[in-house]
Amino acid sequence: MRDVVARNPFAxxxxxxxxxxxxxxxxxxxxxxxxxxxxxxxxxPEELRIEERELYIYFPNGSGRSxxxxxxxxxxxxxxxxxxxxxxxxxxxxxxxxxxxxK
Length: 103
What we know:
alpha+beta, four-stranded antiparallel β-sheet
């Protein structure tokens, strides 16, 4: 989880709302060809960045209004995905680090 947080491609950008940033965890490695297909997808105003087995999606207008289909992304990637917003990702990391520190 530390690596997922460290690799956040939106981390240094101002104005990113954590509740509108989704990290989708891929069940398996989709391969470079599938990653490249995702990189070429047009999905304005949403922004997609794929890193290893994580897909970072920023929904500037919120995910409820998005026309971006997560089912389509799963089909392109050929692997199931599950997503959590940035607030949840950082909370899980915080909980894991607290548990690790208590041992």
